[in-house]
Amino acid sequence: MELGLCTISNKGAPVEDVLAVAADTGYDAVEIWGRDHAGDGSTATCDRIVDRAAELGVEIAVYGSYLAPGTDGFATDVERELAVADRLNADLIRVWPGESEYEECTETEWDRAVADLSELADRAGAFDVGVTVEKHGGRLTNAQAGARRLIEAVDDPNCGLNWQPRFDRPAADLLSEAERLAPLSNNVHLQAVAARGDDERCLLADAYFDVEAVLGRFDAAGFDGAVEVEFVSPAVDYGTAVRRDYEFLRSIVGH
Question: Distance between alpha carbon 17 and the CA centroid of its chain, in Å?
Fold first, then answer.
């Protein structure tokens, strides 16, 4: 497993500053936030980010786009977003499936998302970029069943799941879900709260669920992607939060 930092973890800072924090802390990789940090996505902007990441010795593991297979915007945005991922030399492009939760989606929306993701996996492969599908509320992957069914329906080695914990779930359920979805995942986002249902992030070491056990399930499944810290605790300064989460993860994965 690689250890990564999502630049969205510090939205208010220039992307170059977040890259420097990631490198100074020891992270292997970063995920570039697809809004302010990727900016206009132009060649000049992306070259600046790529050059700075290379100088610092951090890999760009993911371009965190907001491309949404299964929605009207997909056809309009796909070419641009793939171009940005390519310019960033990202290993993966992160996408958001549909605009309904699994239990509420229509057959038409489902079929459209599967078709768009299948197309995207093919087109991204031409750029040597993989696709990682966000597991998130409000999307077709909000629940374990939808996430599994979607990745299995696409059935393409270039398309996997971006797993992350949902804080409305009991700790035992998160562990069970990680075990079932790890074989379908190619990226992991980590963030934490101290009690189920909280909305203020805490240090990973203080999570209400067992982070070490969760990552153990991914390790057992042969997961070889990046485990990325997405958001950090606001209770300490940003650099301290990033460092403490890194040290905690390193103690788990033996990195």
Answer: 20
Start-to-end Cα distance in the chain: 8
DSSP 104: G
Token readout for 143 is 């629940």
- CATH number for region 2-253: 3.20.20.150
* 111: helix, strand or coil: helix
- Closest residue by Cα to residue 136 from 64, 74, 215, 41: 64
Q: Which amino acid is at 112?
A: R
Q: What is the DSSP string of 145-193?
A: HHHHHHHHHH--TTEEEEE---TTS-HHHHHHHHHHHGGGEEEEEE---
Q: Are 95 and 120 in contact (CB under 8 A)?
A: yes
Task: Look at residues 147, 139, 131 and name the one whose alpha carbon lies nearest to residue 91.
Answer: 131
Query: pLDDT tens across 36-88, in order?
Result: 999 999 999 999 999 999 999 999 999 999 999 999 999 999 999 999 999 99
Q: What are residue 31's DSSP bridge partners? A: 6, 62
Pairing of strands 130-134, 226-229: unpaired
Q: Which amino acid is at 252?
A: I
Residues 36, 171: Cα–Cα separation, whole Å? 33
For the record, the structure tokens of 157 come out as 């080695």
CB atoms within 10 A of CB 180: 14
* Beta-ladder partners of 189: 228
